[in-house]
Amino acid sequence: MNNTDCCSLDGISCDPKTGKVIELHLVVGFLSGTLRSNSSLFRLQHLQTMDLGFNNLSGILPDSIGNLKHLRVLSLGGCNFFGKIPPSLGNLSYLTDLDLSDNEFTGELPDSMGNLNRLKELQIGLNKLSGNFPLMLLNLSSLTLADLRSNQFEGMLPSNMSRLSKLVSFTISGNSFSGTVPSSLFMIPPLIELDLTKNDFSGPLVLGNMSSPSKLAKESISAHLTSLDVGRNRLSGKLPKSLINCTQLELLNVEDNRINDTFPSWLRFLPELQILVLRSNEFYGPISSPLSFLKLRIFDISGNRFTGVLPSDYFSGWSAMSSVVDIVDYDQRMFRGASYPTYQKSVGLTNKGSNMEVVGRGFTIYKTIDVSENRLEGDIPESIGLLKELIVLNMSHNAFTGRIPPSLSNLTNLQSLDLSQNGLSGQIPPDLGKLTFLAWMNFSYNKLEDPIPRGTQI
């Protein structure tokens, strides 16, 4: 087949002047078998883009990949490769985008990858890579995205992470990194997304340059930070108040740690906050002051030691849950105009009595309040009835008393309601049975009268 024939095929692009193949986009099932070191593919010396993602190319990635010295984009995600990543990748000095995610690569990253000084996006998540944090990555001064999630990396992160001065997204969830989180991570000016979940980090979370602890400079914090997820580690101490400088923050998740602090009421000064998850820590004390969370959609403080009475107007300033609000998905906005993937983020929640994870696009539509397993008391605030967009409400395992507010029947989108294990008394509002979407109710272990209303979904 001559070049003209080749260039007319789907997924193949050629230089209009020379006729040389410069791009291959053969994704999702076009190819199968093993890439041999003598494959004609590696003789395409003018190739600039090779995207073979999600083909069944099981086997070892041959050293011959290093022959394609003009490659700028190499995407081999989901191809069932195994074995070590070949050191010859370091020869691809023009490479700007490298995706080796969702394979079975093992061992450590080759030191030669430190030569890829034009690399902007590195995706090596969902493999079986091991060893300490690959220090050669700190040489990649152009790097904007680094995704190392779901591997077997361990040890401490280096203290000079701020050398990656152009980093926008850093994801290392699902590894075994330990020690303290280096404060230099929060001193990378363009950083937008930081995901450190499911590791073994410990100690307090410190933001910015603490050489002068008496005065934390505003400019030392990543002011553009939109998503901070440090859940499922062993972090302790207090939630750093310097987060108040992260005025673009939309997601804050510290679930399943050992943070010991009072309720961070100062978070109300973060105007973009949409998702707040403090569940399963050692927070304590009252949360009685009414808060105005204009964009909050997920509020989970379950499994702590919060106390006190919630005033009747507690939920009156929660605009996003009380009306239909057009909220742009932060993943979409974060990477608008860029080629970054909006990978599937998740937060653990309780819905209909079972633990679940809200994943990906679920963030944009899910609206939930979970204050269960605390020591809250007094009446359930009447203002809960203002939150007409609420889907899940869990106030179980507290010490609430008095009557169930009739205003709950205003929650026309409610799907799950759990008020069990409290001291509630009186009649269950019969109008709850008219809620069209309510599929699960639990009022057990209270002092209530009359039968549970039979809803349209029950």
From TrEMBL:
Gene3D superfamilies: Ribonuclease Inhibitor (3.80.10.10)
Main location class: membrane
Keyword annotations: Cell membrane, Glycoprotein, Leucine-rich repeat, Membrane, Receptor, Repeat, Signal, Transmembrane, Transmembrane helix
Membrane topology according to the record: Single-pass type I membrane protein
Compartment(s) where it occurs, according to its Swiss-Prot or TrEMBL record: Cell membrane
Biological process, per Gene Ontology: detection of stimulus
Record's keyword annotation contains Chaperone: no
GO cellular component labels: plasma membrane
Family, as annotated: Belongs to the RLP family.
PANTHER family reported for this sequence: OS10G0469600 PROTEIN (PTHR48065), PROTEIN BRASSINOSTEROID INSENSITIVE 1-LIKE (PTHR48065:SF32)
Protein name: Leucine-rich repeat-containing N-terminal plant-type domain-containing protein
